[in-house]
Amino acid sequence: MRARGLVxxxxxxxxxRGIDVExxxxxxxxxxxxxxxxxxxxxxxxxxxxxxxAGELRVLDMDPDVDGxxxxxxxxxxxxxxxxxxxxxxxxNLQVYGRYFGLSRAHVRARAAExxxxxxxxxxxDDEVEPLSGGMKRRLTIARSLVNDxxxxxxDEPTTGLDPQARHLLWDRLFRLKQTxxxxxxxxxxxxxxxxxxxxxxVMDGGRIVAEGSxxxxxxxxxxxxxxxxxxxxxxxxxAVHRVRDLAERVEVLPDRLLLYADDGEGALATAHQRGVQxxxxxxxxxxxxxxxxxxxxxxxxx
Length: 303
Hints:
Layout: E1 2-10, E2 13-22, E3 28-32, H1 39-46, E4 54-58, H2 64-73, E5 75-78, H3 90-99, H4 105-118, H5 134-145, E6 152-156, H6 164-179, E7 183-187, H7 191-197, E8 200-205, E9 208-213, H8 215-222, E10 226-231, H9 241-244, E11 250-253, E12 257-262, H10 265-274, E13 281-286, H11 289-297
């Protein structure tokens, strides 16, 4: 997938403001950003369900404006909300969906069996979808998106609302897919998910790309190796700021704590204690993609 100067407008509103992106075959690529950043609009253009307003877009070496049906035949799409046929069984959901692609009944039956095994749903094959757990429904949605053996899989918030066990099982299944050569494009609000799944990613804000690279590259570029969290009673951090300002590359003041971005977190914490700083709780942790995300897009809530 390649985009150059890609734009999406809705009337006078420009949701995607001239982005350049290239996704290599066989990699897992992420779109991160707050609500309204332009992620979903970009994904809909890639999925050939929303025409671009300007710029260049090639998906599987084809132009969506001309080759939309051919592209969609080689795509798999996992929407943010499961849209399964809840009154059908697990097996029927796969078989009926496979028929939409013109696949033979014999092929669809065999493919459904493979996908139920892949999604660990074989024992529930003849159960209706409605009573399944959220994790099972999500696995079935992903399995259904693979019925046509897609070369490119688009996943919009694939694990939202799932418990940790279900999330890790889905990550394992997506990793296996990538190993078979399927290209993955993912949007997610979970920074740990992006670190686990994505070879490369972009951070979008206000319809533009504000950073691009691998998770490790972005952490090196926009954060420090470690973060020291010093927690105080409300307002108690104000008197400590001047004592720790020189101990870190950057100090962030929050309502209940100070964040010190430093390469040697333990050393910074020890010096802070020596200077009489007395937080009610401390934590030294490695810097994460979430630190990068919040630095680039801000901490203000976006509706």
